[in-house]
Amino acid sequence: MKKSLIKSLALLFVSILLISGCSRKPENHPRIYVSDKTKTDFLSSANSVEWKKRLIEDKKANLDNYLALCAEDPEWLVSRLQMNWKTRHNRVFLIGGKFSHSGGEAPVPTVRYSGSRDWATDYLSPELEEVEPYFDDPRGMYLEHKTTGEKEWVHPSETGHIIEGINRKGNGTGS
C-alpha cells in the first residue's frame, strides 16, 4: 500500500511538472539581450563596469583588424572559409564518425565537412590570418603538429574540429 501511494504521488508530481512546463508561454526569437527599456542601463554599465568596458574594447579591436583586411580585399574573410572551392563536393562519406572522403559535384562551392565528431587532434588550428585563401587541396590540410612544431599534410579525419573551428572564427569575427 505504501509503495503504491509513493508511486501515485511521484506520478502526480511528474504530471504537474509536465503540465506546467507545457503551459508556459513560448520564448520569443530572436532573443534580444538589450531592449529599449534596458538600453540606458546597459550603456551606462558598459562604460562604468571595467570588465564590460574591456570586453567591448577587445571586440572592437578584433573587428577593426578584420575590417581593415576586408577593406584591402573585400573577399578576404570569405576566402578563408573552409569550403570545397574547387572540388565542389556535395556528398560526404564517414567511417566510424570520421571523415573518409567526399565526392559528387555541386554547382557552387560547398562547406567542407569537419574531420571528426571528436574534437581531439595532434594539430594546432591556424589563425584566420594564416589560412590560405580559397584553400582546397586533395592532400588535406597543412597544419602544425602540437608536439614537433613541424608543418605536415594531414588527412581531415585527423583534424578534429579544426575545419569547423576556422569557419566559426570567420563567421564570428563580429561577435
Automatic annotation (TrEMBL):
This is Lipoprotein. It comes from marine sediment metagenome. The lineage of its organism: unclassified sequences, metagenomes, ecological metagenomes.
